[in-house]
Write a structure and sequence with these properties.
Rossmann fold; 4 domains; 20 helices; about 20% strand; binds zinc ion
Length: about 625
C-alpha cells in the first residue's frame, strides 16, 4: 500500500511523484545487488533517491528542466550550512522589498484581487461584482452579453481586500488605492517568457509568464532569481533555485480566493493556469520564510538518509532516448519505467511557471506526450514511436538478467497497448503485476459505491526464456469480471472491473488487443449503466461459488488477527493480498465491513472477541 510522502520528498511540488515506500520495497526485492539502476523519466527523483539510500548507483534523465533540478537536489543535496547561508541572503534581499507590501505601516500577508473583464460586445468593463448573474454565468450589465474572466478578456484587476500578518482585514478605499499604486510602481524586468498556447491548460495566445503574477510579485521574484543564478557553488545554486521555484506558484495569481484563509492558506491545485475571478496575491516574502523551514527539513532528512551510502547518482536534463543511447551496453541491472502516459499530464507545459524563472530553453519537440496544443502538436502516433524507440534500447543496455520495473497509473487503453506491445516486440514478458492502493484516498472516494479508485499498477518485465504465445482465450477475462461482480452482489464500478481485467491480461500474458475492447468483451456477461457494470440477470443463478467481498474481508481479518494484534497497515496489507482477484476494497470500506468484529485504536487493530476475553496484549 502506498504511503504519503515524507519530508524529504516535499521540498517541491511535482505531478505523478511515486510513493517512496513502494519503490523502496521493489528495489530491495528485485535489485538488491545491482551496480547500476536507470530511471529514464525520473520526474521528481524519488526512485534515484531510494536507490542511493540502498547504496546502489543510479542515473536519471528528464527532459523537463525543473524535474532535472528537483531530482539533482534530491539525489545530491547541498551542504546544509552553505545552503542556509545563501537562503538567508535571499530572505534578506526579499526583506528589502517589504515596502512594496505594506498597508497602514503593517506588513501585508494577502491581497484579494478581482478580475476586470472587457465585454466583447459593448467594451464596457465588468467583474463578478459588476455584472448580472444568471445561473452560474455572468453577463454584461450594460448590454447583456456573456462575460468571461479568462486571460483573453482580462483587463486587469482591482484589489478588494487586504489582510495583514495578524489577519486584520482592510477594505477602506484609501488603503486599496494605496496598494494598487504600489503594484504599479514597479516595471517588469526582462526574462519574461511566452507560454505555449494550449486551451486545455488555459494558456492563451499571447500569454506571458508575467501575466500569472502581479507586477510587484513578478518583480520581487525576478530579483531573487537574479541573485540565486549568481551563486557560485553549483550544488548550492541548484538548491536555492529550487527553493525559490518551490514558492513561485504560491506567489502567483493562480490561487483562488476562498473565504477561509486559516491553516497555511490555499495552494495551486487546479491543473492549469486558471486565474480565478477572485484570487489571492500572497506576499512572497512571508511565504518564502515559511518555505525555507520546510525545505531545510527536507534536505536534512535526505542528509540523514544518505549518511552511510557510498552510491553515486547522476542526473541529466536530456531526453531518455538520447541519453540512454550513449550509455554503455550491458551495464544496467534495472530500469524504472514510469513514462508520461499519453495525454494524461502535460508536465513540461505545467512547469512553464517554474522553468521560466530557471531561464532554461525547453526542448518541447523531444517531450514524449500527446498534446493538441497549437505549437509542437504531438499525436498518438508520435507518442507510440517515441515510446517504442526508448523501449527498443533496453535490451542492449540491460545486462542479461536485467529487469524492468514499470508503473502505470492510467486506465487509457491506448497508452497501455502501445507500451505492452513494445515490450512484447522486444522479447519482454510480464512476470509479476500488482495494483497498489494509495494510502490517502480523496474525500470524493470515501464511500464504498464510489468509482474513483486511483492507484498505480506495478509490473516486472523480464526477458522471456522461451517465446510464449499470448493467449487469445477470452474465458479468463469474462470469468474474472464475473467474479468481481458476484463478490459485490452483481454490480461493481467499471474502473474496478477494468482494473482486475488489466491485471488478468498482465498476469496471464494475454493478447493486448483485448485492452481497448473492454465493453465489447463484457457485453455477453454484463449490462452497463453510467459508471457501473451489472451481471446479466440470466447469469445470476449460475452456480455461485464466489464469496462476497465483505465475507472474504471478515475471514481474512479473523485469521490475520487470530494470534494477536497488528497495526492497521499490516492488517490492511493482508486484506489487499487476499482480495486482489476481486478488486481490493479501500481502507475505509474495510473499516466499515469490519465494524463489530475488529477494534481499531490509534496504533493497533485486534479482534473484538480477544478484547472481551481480556487477552488484548497477547
Ligand atoms: C510519469 S513522470 C515520472 C514521475 C517520476 N517517476 C516520479 O516519481 O516523480 C514522466 C516524466 O517524463 C518526463 N519526460 C517526458 N518526455 C521525456 C523524454 N523524452 N525524455 C525524458 N523524460 C521525459 C516528464 O517531464 C515527466 O517528468
Ligand atoms: Zn456589454
Amino acid at each position: 500500500m502506498a504511503e504519503t510522502h515524507p519530508n524529504e520528498y516535499l521540498i517541491h511540488k511535482y505531478w505523478a511523484r511515486k510513493p517512496s515506500n513502494i519503490l523502496r520495497e521493489y528495489i530491495s526485492s528485485h535489485f538488491k545487488n545491482a551496480d547500476l539502476l536507470v530511471d529514464p523519466f525520473c520526474g521528481s527523483g524519488v526512485f534515484l533517491a531510494e536507490a542511493k539510500k540502498q547504496n546502489i548507483n543510479a542515473t536519471g534523465y528528464d527532459i523537463n528542466p525543473l524535474a532535472y533540478l528537483l531530482s539533482e537536489v534530491t539525489a545530491n543535496p547541498p551542504s546544509i550550512t552553505k545552503f542556509t547561508l545563501e537562503a538567508d541572503k535571499l530572505l534578506k534581499l526579499a526583506d528589502s522589498f517589504a515596502n512594496l507590501y505594506t498597508v497602514d505601516g503593517k506588513e501585508i500577508r494577502y491581497a484579494v484581487h478581482r478580475v476586470e473583464s472587457v465585454c466583447s460586445n459593448c467594451k464596457e468593463i465588468g467583474s463578478i461584482d459588476h455584472s448580472s448573474k444568471r445561473g452560474s454565468k455572468y453577463h454584461c450589465s450594460s448590454c447583456g452579453e456573456r462575460l468571461f474572466f479568462n486571460f483573453e478578456k482580462f483587463k486587469g484587476t482591482k484589489i478588494v481586500k487586504i489582510f495583514d500578518r495578524e489577519n486584520k482585514e482592510y477594505t477602506e478605499k484609501k488603503y486599496l488605492k494605496e496598494q494598487e499604486d504600489l503594484i504599479r510602481k514597479v516595471s517588469l524586468p526582462v526574462g519574461n517568457q511566452n507560454l505555449i498556447p494550449n486551451r486545455r491548460i488555459l494558456a492563451f495566445p499571447g500569454m506571458r509568464l508575467s501575466d500569472l503574477f502581479t507586477p510587484r510579485a513578478f518583480y520581487v521574484l525576478s530579483e531573487l532569481f537574479d541573485a540565486a543564478h549568481k551563486v557560485k557553488d553549483e550544488s548550492v545554486k541548484n538548491a536555492v533555485l529550487l527553493f525559490l521555484t518551490s514558492s513561485v506558484a504560491q506567489s502567483s495569481r493562480l490561487i483562488p480566493y476562498r473565504n477561509n484563509l486559516s491553516t497555511g492558506g490555499p495552494a495551486w491545485t487546479i491543473p492549469g493556469f486558471w486565474i480565478a475571478p477572485l484570487h489571492l496575491e500572497t506576499n512572497p516574502i512571508i511565504h518564502l520564510q515559511a518555505r525555507k523551514k520546510k525545505f531545510l527539513k527536507g534536505i536534512e532528512a535526505l542528509d540523514r538518509a544518505y549518511k552511510s551510502t557510498s552510491a553515486r547518482v547522476s542526473v541529466l536534463n536530456r531526453s531518455a532516448h538520447d541519453a540512454l543511447s550513449e550509455l554503455e551496453d550491458n551495464s544496467v541491472d534495472g530500469i524504472f519505467f514510469d513514462p508520461p502516459y499519453g495525454d494524461n499530464v502535460p508536465y513540461v507545459e505545467f512547469s512553464a511557471i517554474w522553468n521560466g524563472f530557471l531561464r532554461k530553453k525547453i526542448a518541447y519537440e523531444k517531450e514524449i506526450i500527446v498534446s493538441d496544443r497549437k505549437e509542437h502538436v504531438s499525436s498518438w502516433d508520435k507518442y507510440a514511436r517515441d515510446i517504442s524507440n526508448v523501449i527498443s534500447l533496453f535490451d542492449k543496455k540491460l545486462k542479461r538478467r536485467g529487469k524492468i520495473l514499470m508503473t502505470f497509473n492510467n486506465l487509457d487503453p491506448r497508452a497501455w497497448k502501445i507500451v505492452l506491445d513494445s515490450f512484447s516486440k522486444n522479447g519482454y514478458v510480464c512476470s509479476e503485476a500488482k495494483y497498489q492502493i494509495p494510502a490517502v484516498v480523496s474525500s470524493k472516494s470515501q464511500t464504498a459505491s464510489n468509482t474513483s479508485y486511483v492507484g498505480d499498477y506495478y509490473c516486472i518485465f523480464e526477458k522471456a526464456k522461451t517465446q510464449k504465445k499470448s493467449s487469445h482465450d477470452l474465458f479468463h477475462l469474462t470469468e474474472s469480471a464475473k467474479k468481481v461482480l458476484r463478490s459485490r452482489g452483481g454490480s461493481a464500478p467499471k474502473n474496478l472491473v477494468h482494473r482486475v481485467i488489466i491485471l488478468t491480461i498482465l498476469n496471464e500474458g494475454m493478447n493486448t488487443g483485448f485492452l481497448d475492447r473492454f465493453e465489447e468483451i463484457l457485453k455477453p456477461v454484463t449490462t452497463q449503466d453510467g459508471e457501473y457494470y451489472h451481471l446479466r440477470a440470466e447469469l445470476s443463478d449460475e452456480k455461485n461459488d464466489a464469496s462476497s467481498v465483505e465475507q472474504l474481508v471478515k475471514n481474512i481479518a479473523e485469521s490475520s488477527l487470530r494470534d494477536g494484534r497488528k497495526t492497521l497497515k499490516e492488517l490492511y496489507e493482508d486484506i489487499l493480498e487476499g482480495t486482489s482477484e476481486i478488486g481490493s476494497p479501500l481502507l475505509n470500506e474495510v473499516k466499515t465491513m469490519l465494524s463489530g468484529i475488529v477494534l481499531f485504536d490509534k496504533d493497533f487493530s485486534y479482534l473484538q472477541r480477544a478484547h472481551q476475553n481480556g487477552s488484548l496484549f497477547s
